[in-house]
């Protein structure tokens, strides 16, 4: 029931630690998927017009047209500390809740550190939560690009929820990480087939389904970028089930196997439940593998998905990883995937973007995975690129999405080959 590690994996590989200019989205962008996941939550971004424009552009809609997030814009006098922004925030929240009685959770999201916006959103959340309890719970976290990278916005949001979770003595499994509902349903169906339960999810789709935690809670991460949430859950008594991330057939099987061992599921039942979806996943990946096998790939640090994706692409799709960069490497979370990643690539943490661009130019890998800001310039230099952001917004977890995940990497290589053929004609 376990994935066999390579003879020499990357578990003990040296890590190139870089600290310099970064080229990543800020954590505010996590709101775009979080507000769709939590159906009775609202995200009020406290920040500048620049932040409003960012969310408008990233979401592809007018900021006030989205039903469950908006921006409370601080003017120049507020940023200079000359206005009583606390009173204004209280009025805006009161108006919002009077218009939207369906809101059960309200997140105050700082777009800048508190010393910049001159507003302590933590104290504001405590005050507003007491005022509007029990119908509405008000929490806060930072989505500042100074303090968070792209996917750390979700991590900060979930970590802020943990201290307010109710307590329980029941033995339960908690799945941690925002997944599209259809993917979450697939995971829950697999676990139910294995006889594992009760199973709760963080975040829950609705406030009434919010999970409880306690000393008998065990949790499995479905996203590799949840370091702060991981720490918060452990501080509150829960225990982590370490496992590779559920990407591809091998990763999903290893993830399920780790949970199955925790709950004493026998090998025969595990095989009966997973055999058919494992076969479907392997078959679905085969078509893309014909394009990917033997190709070299270079990862810029962006989404925190880089290490498990490199494991999937090298072990299941036959690719060779040249460099695998990740914004942060949390040893307990990334360790199981690093142990399976075949030895060879440079493993880098953090970023000095100019130096990494030089390494990417020198490597000239067949496919370079990077952020939006780097993709077009690298394409202009003749490199084939893949947008890292697409890997976060596309359903890619578990067996039924394994083929789609592989296709996301095969597609740009096919496009490049077609363009070369067209140019030759």
Automatic annotation (TrEMBL):
| Cofactor(s) demanded | [4Fe-4S] cluster
Reaction(s) catalysed by this chain's protein:
chlorophyllide a + oxidized 2[4Fe-4S]-[ferredoxin] + 2 ADP + 2 phosphate = protochlorophyllide a + reduced 2[4Fe-4S]-[ferredoxin] + 2 ATP + 2 H2O
Q: Which residues bind [4Fe-4S] cluster?
A: 26, 51, 112
Q: For this entry, list what GO says about its biological process.
A: light-independent bacteriochlorophyll biosynthetic process; photosynthesis, dark reaction
Q: What class of enzyme is it?
A: oxidoreductase
Pathway(s) of this molecule: Porphyrin-containing compound metabolism; bacteriochlorophyll biosynthesis (light-independent)
Q: Provide the GO MF annotations for this entry.
A: 4 iron, 4 sulfur cluster binding; ATP binding; metal ion binding; oxidoreductase activity, acting on iron-sulfur proteins as donors; oxidoreductase activity, acting on the CH-CH group of donors, iron-sulfur protein as acceptor
The record ties this protein, via SUPFAM superfamilies, to: Helical backbone' metal receptor
Q: Where would I find the Nitrogenase/oxidoreductase component domain in this sequence?
A: 26-407
The record's note on quaternary structure and interaction partners says:
Protochlorophyllide reductase is composed of three subunits; BchL, BchN and BchB. Forms a heterotetramer of two BchB and two BchN subunits.
Q: What's the protein called, per UniProt?
A: Light-independent protochlorophyllide reductase subunit N
Q: Which organism is it from?
A: Palleronia sediminis
Give the gene that encodes this protein: bchN
